[in-house]
Amino acid sequence: MTRTRRPASRASRPGERLTRRLAVLLLAGPLLAAAPSVRAGGRDLPGDDMSHPHWIDLLPWIVTGNSCDYEPDYDAMCPFGSWGPDVVYAVAPERSVTVTVSLCDSHYDTKLMVYENGPGTLLGCSDDACAGPNFDYPYLSRLEGLSLVAGNTYYIVVKGYCAECGVYVMSVAPEAPCAIDFPGGGLPEGEPECHDGYVDEFNGGCDAGTPAFVPLVLGSQPLIVCGTSGTYTTGFEVRRDTDWYAFTLSAPGTLTARLAAEFDAKLHIFDAAGGCDSPILIGGAGSAACDAALAIEPLAAGSYWLRVSPAPESDAACGARYILALELETDEAGVGPGPDLGALAAAGGLRIAVSPQPARDRAEIAVWPPQPGGLEVALFDPSGRRIRTLRFRGEPVEGRLRLSWDGRDDGGRPVPTGVYGCRAAAAGGSGTRVLFWIR
């Protein structure tokens, strides 16, 4: 990752929190309900304009949010004008860098502008440049080959066509050559560099003969892990250096994980309840070299594993760098180091896991009710409307229940690409998990 700086004349702004709002809404009410703007009485909403931007501190960067929470401030003709809401990000690189800014994973018809040092100098504007997994039409936005010169501040404005707004996914990635800089204050992984004939006894996790994990302590401040990985040969077998990390939550929270690497990389999040014999995949993401991957998971109290690895097709040399940035939001203090591997805390009420994320063709759902008895499992669309009942409460269950969903509603109709809520309810509690579905 490339370090960026903030101009000395600007106070440090708090990090964006739009990525967590989705999980909160899923637990508290109708999915994707619009939150009221806090702009009334003053322009103090981070991201609302160039005087209050969301700051990008590292490159590459990836973030998601909802532009409907903002008001219109800026526009440029490329080739059409727009008058809808916009969100502002700012980056001030410590060294000159060429980047690609992309909205190609967004969920609505977008528009993108980049300004240098203020609204008077437009560096680039994009309206229709790409389609993506969340929007089938080529009406999403991307700017390539943008030269960001050290000593300047660049403002990235996320907007929509005409008056449109919605859920966006924005990435800012340096172009080749790809080199990751470890930031000061990061936590070193500590593993020796792999090599041909290497045997990983350090943090090979469930991929190793003897499982080993690096324990992490997640608290109120973001944690940045600086690691290395690669591929190597043992005998006649090509192996990948997979790095496993472990942490425990004593209270529910929402984990935001960002991964950037010098190689095509994968990030997986596991519930450790099943142990290495049957690890439970609950989320993850992947990225190309020097791009960024983003995973956001609401987690119940319990023990979890993170796995960073080269993608199966990668031939990265040993010593290739990556950075894993972790943020946790929880209602209570009490997040501790390394879990009791394979142990599931008996307390904590109902637990639910969904995999893979995103899901295509079929989603697997696992539910642990707090006590024997009736259990109901259902799917809800973004408006909060029940679309599919997988299990009725009148059917008793004891122990873990596994279900699958084929992406259809109760009438057998395929549901569109989008974000859904999977809710389980029993006498001893209830739980909701975000489910990202791709057709």
Provide a descriptive summary of the structure in words:
The chain folds into three domains: about 1-175, Jelly Rolls (Sandwich); about 185-335, Jelly Rolls (Sandwich), CATH 2.60.120.380; about 350-435, Immunoglobulin-like. The strands form nine sheets. Strands 15, 19, 21, 22, 24 and 26 form a six-stranded mixed β-sheet that branches. Strands 2-5-12-7-8 form a five-stranded mixed β-sheet, with no helix packed on it. Mean pLDDT is about 80; it is low at about 10-45 and about 330-350. It has about 450 residues and is mostly beta strands. It is globular and about 65 Å long. Strand 33 and strand 34 form a beta hairpin. It has one helix and 34 strands. Helices cover about 5% and strands about 45% of the residues.
Q: Which stretches are low in confidence, meaning pLDDT under 50 for 5 or more residues running? A: 8-43, 332-348
Strand content: 35-45%
Counting DSSP E segments of at least 2 residues, the number of strands comes to 34
Rg calculated over all Cα atoms: 22 Å
By CATH reckoning, the class of the largest domain would read Mainly Beta
N- and C-termini, Cα separation: 33 Å
Shape by Cα distribution: globular
Classification by helices and strands: mainly beta
* CATH fold naming of the largest domain: Jelly Rolls
CATH architecture of the largest domain: Sandwich
**Oligomerization category of the chains in this entry:** single chain
Look at the structure and give the mean pLDDT.
Answer: 79
The largest pleated sheet is described as:
6 strands, mixed
Q: How many domains? A: 3
Number of discrete helical segments: 1
State the helicity in percent bands.
under 10%
Protein name: FlgD/Vpr Ig-like domain-containing protein
Organism: Eiseniibacteriota bacterium
Domain FlgD/Vpr Ig-like: 375-428
